[in-house]
Amino acid sequence: MAASPLLEPGLVIAGHGRHVWVETPDGRRLICHPRGKKSQTVVGDRVLWLATQDEGTIEKVEPRRNLFYRQDEIRTKSFAANLDQVLILIAAEPEFSESQLSRALIAAEAEHIRPIIALNKSDLGPLFDRAWQRLAVYRDMGYTVLPLALKPRTEHEPHRTEGLQAMLQGKTTLVLGPSGAGKSTLINRLVPEAAVLTNAISTALNSGKHTTTSTTLYWVDAAKTTAVIDSPGFQEFGLNHIEPMHLASLMPDIKAHASDCKFYNCSHRHEPGCGVLAALQPASETFSAPGPQQISANRYKIYSDLFAELSQTRY
User: Fold this and answer.
1) pLDDT tens, 142-183?
2) Residue 225, number of CB atoms within 10 A of its CB
3) Element (H, E) at 105
4) Strand partners of residue 186
């Protein structure tokens, strides 16, 4: 579509159903509706829109750098587009699912988006220590893992957020995590006026009270160079869009040994001469930390179970 002088550029900053909130370069915000029956826009999209009275119509979605999403057998859930990084926020309590963490990391790897893992509730002592130890294998893989103790502003905060804020500076970051991990507390710390903005968006889009049922972009700085995107909590994270034979390349510890296999099309599950199976931590050592060149038994189980799941969905 050729650019029209009537079309204006904008950034999608929130959505509910088929309605989205678009922000223009000069700071105006208005409701826009997609052309056609189905909305193809997500938060983070750069769009061209056409004014229609006091609202607008989305005429074009500009090409995306990436799209972070999950997909199960029923539907695809798109979180956001044009991201620099994904902050996966988990907590020492309630205990996080390593399978769900791995799935989020795989989804980020598939879109070439940098993931950051943050473990909240570092003030819980032994509970945190055990959770931190569970993440040792991810630190060994090269992932950035940060400790946090997110508290309301009126309470003592043992671990401040300066280190995290430095990583967010100048970036567009999707904040992702299960319910109860502390996402709302983090967003309110980074963007003190988030509750006011959220109420305004909810009123405009007629989406009711905000319980993070939709995805919303907030500017952290006045210059609008740093953005955080709040997303709904999730309990499941489908990866049906990932090809089973591509899975190993998206898991760094598996990928490190996949080139040592005898067969180029090795599934790393039963083939002779498999470099991955050769590097697998022995069953007798399952409850100890894997060696520097070993794949942990738990990580391999996640790979094997996910490979089987993805293979089943294709037949």
Assistant:
1) 999 999 988 765 555 444 577 899 999 999 999 998 888 888
2) 12
3) helix 98-110
4) none
Q: The pTM is what?
A: 0.89
Task: Output b/e per residue, 157-178; b: 16+ Cβ within 10 A.
Answer: eebebeebeebbeebbbbbbbb
Q: Mean pLDDT, to the nearest integer, of 303-315?
A: 87
Contact at 8 Å (CB) between 13 and 21? yes
User: Given a cut of 60, is residue 127 above it in pLDDT?
Assistant: yes
pLDDT given for residue 210 in this prediction: 41
Residues of CATH 2.40.50.140 domain(s) within the chain?
A: 7-61
Burial classification of residue 230, based on how many CB atoms lie within 10 Å of its CB (0-12 exposed, 13-18 middle, 19 or more buried)? buried
| Dist CA 220 CA 172 (whole Å) | 10
CATH 1.10.40.50 in the chain, residue ranges = 244-312
Q: Are the C-beta atoms of residues 14 and 24 closer than 8 Å to each other?
A: no
The residues that bridge with 68 in the sheet, in sequence order, are: 80
Distance CA 23, CA 27 (A): 6
User: Any residues with CB less than 8 A from the CB of 53 and at least 6 apart, and which?
Assistant: none
Q: Of 180, 182, 16, 201, which is closest to residue 87 (Cα–Cα)?
A: 182
Homologous superfamily in CATH for domain 67-230: P-loop containing nucleotide triphosphate hydrolases (3.40.50.300)
Both tokens of residue 311? Answer: 């293979």
Every domain of the chain with CATH number 3.40.50.300 lies at 67-230
Whether 279 shows a pLDDT value over 60: the answer reads yes
The topology under which CATH files domain 244-312 is Ribonucleotide Reductase Protein R1; domain 1 (1.10.40)
CATH classification code of 7-61: 2.40.50.140
